[in-house]
Design a protein that fits this description.
Structural class: alpha/beta
Radius of gyration: 20 Å
Bound molecules: zinc ion
Order of helices and strands: EEEEEHEEEEEEHEHEHEHEEHEHEHE
Distance between the termini: 34 Å
Shape: globular
CATH superfamily of the largest domain: Ribonuclease Z/Hydroxyacylglutathione hydrolase-like
Amino acid sequence: MNPAKPLIQFTKRGLYVSQADVYIDPWQKVKRALITHGHADHAHPGMDHYLCTHSAKPVLQHRLGHKAKIDSVKYGETTTINGVKFSFYPAGHIIGSAQIKVEYKDEIWVVSGDYKTENDGLSEAFDSVRCHTFITESTFGMPVYKWKPQAEIFAEINDWWKQNKSIGKTSVLTGYSLGKAQRLLQGLDPSIGKVYTHVSIENTNQIIRKQGYKLNDTIKISNHQNAADYAGNIVICPPTATGNPWMKNLGNVSTGRTSGWMTVPGAGRKRKEDRGFALSDHADWTGLIQAIESCEAENIFVTHGYSKIFSRYLTEKGYNAAEVKTEYEGEVHTIKESK
Ligand SMILES: [Zn+2]
Ligand SMILES: [Zn+2]
């Protein structure tokens, strides 16, 4: 790495590749933006031009509006800009999410955006890319965050749903409209009952179905339904929607939240839902370490999350690691639907 002029610079607009005059996931207006995935903290509006993967594009276009100029590429396909080669590799975070590989002369950097190493069966599975410098998130960069296999978590969720059904309750499960909601949908057992979806989730589902992904059946929530329709069934809604007046229609409910933060017992006291399930679209501690080891990078830049603790840990392990401030978010603690 040339310390005087690193291949990627951390600027006030975002991650900047000056040789190509390109930004990756910028948070301020720039000419050319390469986007790892469609969550709001990575895909901001107002860029002159966007580049993402084919599978990320439909949702990105929906979120940024039809006027946004978005080009897309296949995973693994190379785009060369002023001698710099850019290519996208699966990040396993949500459908279409990518790590972006930046190669110039003999140097390779990888920007991972948000990622998870466990294959959820819907997102393109995380693919390790060898590089010299790896930019990693650290949302769950503490040893206490270790996920149970997702099959176990889904068994817990389905049991909770069955129990609610047996006493005539409606189950309400929260998840971000893009990513988590579809993952929940695919993990729910349709033999238990019907799956209703909040409009913001159903809009995203429709885009994803149009792309050719096979999502399980859903029924969009509407004013024509009443408590008798919902009883025993399950509703998936964004975290922001719980507690709002529309929920009165659902009858007697039990609410559940799915988030990596549910790992820590103390998190339960602050939450407004009845049940918490530790399911995340981000890598746990083990996943972060695996990703770092398998890319074989010597230099690690640690962004959003436990960046200080995690970069210090990596330094102790012999990596050339440093913490970097960005405007990316991990899995938000507070209830917010910007994802
Ligand atoms: Zn994300
Ligand atoms: Zn993020």
